[in-house]
Amino acid sequence: MQLAEINIPWILIAGTVGMLLMVFTIIFFVIIHQRKVISYQLKLKKVAEEQQAKLTQAAVQSEETERKRISAELHDDVGAMLSSVKLYLNQIQPAHLNDHGKINILNDCKELLNDTVQHVRDLSSNLQPSIIKDFGLVSTLQNFCDKLSHSPGLQISLSIAGKIDRFQTEHELAVFRILQELTNNIIKHANAQCINFSLVRKNNGRLHIFIEHNGNGLSQKEFEQKLYSMQGLGLKNIQNRLNILKGNIRFEKGNDSMYTISVQIPIIA
Amino acid sequence: MHIYQLIFVIEPFFPLIPLVTLFVKRSRRLKWIILLRRYLVSYIILVFLANSVYYLKPFLEDFFSREFLGKINNSIFNIILSALTFCFFALIFEEFLSSKFKIINRTIMFIAVLFFIANAIWWEGINVFNTYSAALANFVLISYCVYYYQRQLQSLQTFFIEKQPSFWIVSGIFIYCAGNFFLFTTYNYLTFHYTIFAFYSWYINDFLIIVMNVFFAKGIQCNWQK
Description:
Chain A is an alpha+beta fold. Chain A contains six helices and five strands, in the order H-H-H-E-H-E-E-H-H-E-E. By secondary structure, chain B is mostly helical. Chains A and B meet through helix 1 of A and helix 7, helix 8 and helix 9 of B.
């Protein structure tokens, strides 16, 4: 067949149209394929994150179970035994003893035993605050503040704005643990003399907790540095609990040399 | 005035679409934007000159001899434009691809420019459209486009690739080069055997230039939004 017999213009037009179709196909393929691959990767990342969250939750839960068990052991076994010892000791009166020195020892023993019983009770209550299940976060926090305010040289206050309804007990316990850890850190490391707790329930269903103290607190940068360093197990626990609660924390220094730690948590009833 | 005459009159000003976008959406002065702007301005000047020569030639018959006018040809502008288009687009690709690509690109550019010059001087000459040069330039640019898409699929940097300015610029170049590939490679053959078709084939080129410029404008807009 001669070249002139072939309809060259039509072949060219068809070729050009074909090329353009190929171009558009490639462009659409790139757009769709890229989006598909990225969404697949995002999905994988989400699954990995969920897995991580589940592991953290399991770790936190097992920690709570262990605390509960130790608390029960302390309360039911050690506490009961100490109470029995106290009962027996109470039956021995100073009148039964002739030696003045022995009387003193008996009185010291009774005093020491009373302190030990109280200490075990406190320990048990700290390990598993029983009132959180029955009365919720606010009452537990109130109780916690009352106990702390007995410590010499420590001023504690708690203010609550708006009605804070009860939410999931596990979440209430997690919030309490966060506050407990933060307070321990403030007393132990920041050497604060004054701590103010404020709880605010926002309209968007979030609970804002502010802890203001006059100690030598952390800045947000220092918190993040400690969080990602090898130390700071307590801070890591706080972050883990916050991850489970989908909350966040912020460390700030005010102008009046007061430090504020704000914790925000979405409330799921 | 016929529609084809009107198109040839407005043809040099198609790049005003991205240039106006560039003016309205003043974006960051990135190197690819500077290169693109230079290309667009060069295009306006060269196409304006080429079309002016083509249209003014019949009016000059009263003043110059036919022999002299026969020697005047607008192909030289098209040859320069082809070379410039290739160089500017290749340099723009350098901005969108890795630094490793730069060495390869500069080598290819050097060889291609040597080929353009040799082709214009010894093989096809400056009085006809240089199909070999245009085919080579288009082939290289199409390969660059495919390489760019492949890199995008491998790197997966962004979820919305269509929000990337580079995506629109490369897609515009891709459409232009792929759409013109067969026309450019056979243009000289067409001018001898299918003169009318060869004349009208410039409409396809014009259409592709408009599409390319619209894509460029979109790329500039995306850069502004970024």
